[in-house]
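Researcher: We plan to redesign the surface later, but first we want a full-length starting point. Tokens attached.
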């Protein structure tokens, strides 16, 4: 989502850390924080009724990871702020896909573990039982120097700086209000194969429109290796702002996180003597060993914990399998009874675009998107098990208020294993005083989000009550079917329903009201 929005011209975005819907586990929340702290927009947010999503709600290990992740973000604020300036003036995305660094490498187009933050590459583990240090990192061609702030952890992303780049960073403040232009400024330098590097820093007062009148300072820092001496200096500046009186701390990356550094006054040139090849080898070896020790001794984050009075820790629920014939389905009763996986076994095709908390196959009881029935906990009423772990049918129901429940039965019939059936209905469980009444408009809204391999060739077909057949093509747009033109089915008359059938084709989403 963040990458797609960035490519579409919206650079300021980020998902709700921990997930808006449903309950995060300690490891999920910690890893999400590690990634989320690197996104342009970084915020934890969850819907009402979920467990507490504060970092300390998931245990000490998770809290520590979140602390490290947020300290990283605040140290990199000067770099992030500069990227937003470039997005504003040049239209470049703040976050971009990894293949932007090497468009000819086809491997990078399917890599879902990394992204670019300018010349900074963020690489995370997407394998639940493997830390980031246990993965084989797929990097673009060229020079990429890994580094950290002495904060590496198996559940935090690894960081790489592209050769030829200079990025600024500062101290890890508690909040933006603590930042002061006179704070020490640090530069992280990764030389390219020619021994050169360049980067920019944008500064203004952080508020208002003074920058439009030139009230800012844009500094270009360059580094160059000659003989065994690296010189870091300012090549050009722009803007009316006076350079703050501050110290400059320059770090030259050598490999495996090892570095040499020097101090000077910002605005002055600084020269750093590059260690001998033997000394560099020793520094790299020591740093590599220290990194290994940090990873091996880091406190692991439990992926599940028994409930123990803490509002933020619950046993993660396990999806229910419905497998038989040509289909393997997965349903999650604890979040709307949704189907999150719909795999056609002979072809290996996954029909649904889904996360556990959103999309997939959903059903609601109102006309509004994600109305009652979408996220409620469903109770499993019955399941037919052919053998241990394999289920051929699943029946469940969820309370949607007003004395109503949604009943859903998912089955794979023995006489026709090429298909599966979803039978859903709104059922009145209780009436009279205290039931909530039926003053609201209720309906059965079906909302599947399909992965269409050939969208232009896909269509929806159904038979109406009167026997007429309908094919809705992508160009059909919105269609309304009432009376005997509704899909063939049972429509109770004991309750006053506003009954309609609606499909939108072409956007890969289908909404059906009954």
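Model: Full-length starting sequence:
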């Amino acid at each position: 989502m963040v990458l797609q929005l960035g490519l579409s011209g919206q650079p300021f975005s980020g998902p709700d850390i921990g997930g808006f819907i449903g309950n995060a586990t300690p490891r999920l929340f910690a890893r999400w924080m590690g990634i989320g702290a690197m996104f342009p927009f970084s915020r934890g947010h969850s819907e009402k009724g979920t467990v507490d999503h504060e970092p300390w709600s998931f245990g000490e290990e998770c809290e520590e990871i979140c602390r490290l992740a947020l300290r990283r973000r605040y140290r990199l604020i000067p770099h992030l702020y500069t990227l937003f300036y470039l997005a504003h003036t040049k239209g470049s995305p703040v976050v971009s896909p990894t293949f932007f660094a090497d468009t000819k490498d086809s491997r990078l187009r399917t890599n879902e573990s990394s992204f670019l933050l300018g010349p900074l590459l963020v690489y995370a583990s997407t394998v639940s039982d493997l830390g980031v240090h246990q993965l084989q990192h797929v990097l673009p061609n060229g020079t990429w120097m890994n580094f950290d702030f002495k904060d590496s952890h198996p559940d935090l992303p690894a960081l790489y700086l592209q050769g030829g780049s200079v990025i600024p960073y500062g101290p890890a403040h508690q909040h933006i209000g603590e930042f002061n232009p006179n704070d020490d400024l640090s530069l992280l330098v990764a030389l390219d194969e020619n021994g050169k590097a360049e980067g920019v820093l944008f500064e203004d007062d952080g508020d208002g429109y003074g920058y439009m009148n030139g009230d800012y300072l844009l500094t270009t820092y360059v580094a160059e290796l000659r003989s065994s001496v690296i010189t870091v200096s300012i090549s050009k500046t722009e803007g009316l702002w006076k350079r703050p009186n501050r110290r400059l701390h320059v770090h030259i990356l050598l490999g495996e996180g090892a570095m040499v550094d020097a101090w000077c006054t910002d605005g002055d040139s600084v020269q750093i003597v590059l260690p001998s090849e033997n000394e560099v080898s020793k520094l790299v070896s020591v740093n590599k060993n220290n990194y290994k020790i940090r990873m091996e001794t880091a406190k692991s984050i439990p992926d599940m914990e028994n409930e123990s009075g803490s509002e933020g820790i619950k046993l993660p629920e396990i999806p229910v399998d419905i497998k038989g014939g040509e289909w393997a389905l997965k349903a999650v009763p604890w979040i709307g009874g949704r189907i999150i996986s719909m795999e056609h076994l002979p072809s290996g095709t996954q029909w649904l675009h889904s996360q556990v908390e959103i999309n997939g196959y959903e059903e609601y009881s109102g006309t509004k998107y994600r109305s009652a029935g979408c996220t409620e906990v469903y109770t499993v009423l019955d399941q037919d098990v052919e053998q241990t772990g394999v289920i051929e049918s699943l029946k469940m129901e969820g309370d949607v208020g007003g004395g109503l429940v949604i009943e859903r039965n998912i089955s794979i019939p023995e006489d026709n294993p090429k298909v599966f059936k979803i039978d859903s209905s709104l059922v009145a469980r209780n009436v009279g005083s205290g039931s909530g009444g039926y003053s609201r408009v209720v309906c059965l809204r079906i909302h599947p989000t399909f992965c269409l391999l050939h969208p232009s060739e896909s269509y929806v077909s159904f038979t109406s009550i009167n026997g007429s057949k309908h094919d809705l093509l992508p160009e059909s747009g919105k269609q309304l079917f009432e009376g005997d033109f509704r899909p063939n089915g049972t429509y109770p008359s004991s309750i006053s329903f506003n009954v309609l059938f609606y499909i939108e084709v072409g956007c890969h989403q289908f909404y059906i009201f009954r």
